[in-house]
Structure formats: C-alpha cells, structure tokens
Amino acid sequence: MQTALVTGASTGIGLATAVTLAKSDYTVTATVRSLDSADGLRRAADAAGVQLAITDLDVTDQDSVDSAVEGVLAQHGQLDVLVNNAGRGRVGTTERIDVDQLQATLDVNLIGVWRMTRAALPHMRTRGTGRIVTVTSIGGVVAQPFNDAYCAAKFAVEGMMESLAPVAAEFGVDVILIEPGAVATNFVQNVDGLSAVGDPDDPYLPLLQTYLTNMAAVFDQAQSPQDVADVVLAALTDVSPKLRYQTSDSVTERAATKLADTTGSEALEVARKRLTES
Fold this sequence. Notes:
The chain is an alpha/beta fold.
C-alpha cells in the first residue's frame, strides 16, 4: 500500500484529495496548520468511511516540515507520494503590497513547497521511486490582475518544478503540476488583502472593484474541490505521468493560448477587459 502526505488538508482541495486518496487505498497523512481546524476533515473522512492520520504542519517552519516527513517515515517506513497543496492568496498591486507581505506570500506558496519537496526528495531518490504533486494554479501560467504576489509565487513554483522534473526522473521520482482554475473553496474568502478593498485612498479601487465583480461571475461557474482531487488521483495512477495537468478544458485552453501568445498581447487584452468592462 502506498503512503501519501497531503499538505493544506483542512478544507477545499487538500481535504478532498486526502479523502479521495484514502478511498483509493493510499495510507494518508493529512496535514493541517492547526489541529483546531481539522474537524471538517474528520467529518469528511468519517462520511467516506475511511481512516487517515491527521497531523499539524506549518510549511513556513522548517522544524515542522522535518517533523512531519520524519513522522511518516518512522511510522510507515516509506513515503511514496507528496502532495504540496498548502497555499495562501493575496490581493493587491505591487504598489500596495509591502515587502513583508510579499515575503509572507512567497513563504507559503513557494518556499513552503521548496521545504516540503526538499524534505521528501532524499528518501524518494534513495528508494528510486516516488511522486511529488504540486497544486499550483492557472495563475502560475497566466497572470491575473491584482494578484502580483500570488502569481509571482505560483510562476516560481512552476519554474522550480519544471527545472527539477528531468533531474528527479533520473532517480525514478516523478514531478507533477496540477493547474486548477476557479475552484469553489474557502480559499477566496481567506485571501489576504481583501479587508483593504474598501480603502477610499486606494487609487486602484475602481479597477479592483470591477475586477472582483467580474471574477465573482467566474467563480459562479467554479469547479468543485472534488473535481481537482480526481485529477490528482488520475495523475498519481497514470503509468507515464505528464508534468502538467489542467483540471478543466477551459483551463487547458487558457494555458494553451498563453503558450501560443509569444508576445503576451492577447493575455494582456483579456486582463484589461476584466479591469474595464462590466
């Protein structure tokens, strides 16, 4: 039986992924930043009739990262799958995000992934097998207005994993990126910076309000966390896994448009419309 460690499993994609893997006969350790936030995960596991271990993990704390990985290895003797899912959004332009806020966003979305991968990789490399799955975003392929810090982190994670993938493959370790679009989770409500949306001194406020209105319509058509979890499972059970998996046809189309748009003009035009047309 394969062993999986899933980060950011208290809600949303992480919760659905942890339960889905447990239902598919993986031995799952689901991690949450605080055990106080694990009630929903426990209820979901009970409802699905599965068992999984729940432990606290802060991906911004190296000792916490090391303890979680070492705990899985001590209990099970192996770690076959790492799912990097923990993440945090931030709304705001470069002018309105200070360096400390940028660092906090990078610490969860980029450096946290780096810490987890770096902790798990030596074991997988030594065994000659393993899969590292990282949930990024369409925002790691096509940048979104007012997501300067978040997209910076997600673009960086995409680059990190694309660089690591061919090297890790030489040691039997597959690196996989999962790219969702809009997903109906608590992620949006928990985005840092939303509390400042009504600041009358923000020169960007009219543009931001239009953007948020347009994005609300996008999220009305959002995928479910289970949709994304199903793609994670498909990637893990793919005999010859690809580097990238988009979670819907619309996300694949947007990614393909970006990659074909070598000047960036079309991507900027789509973004401009979201800022100025209602």
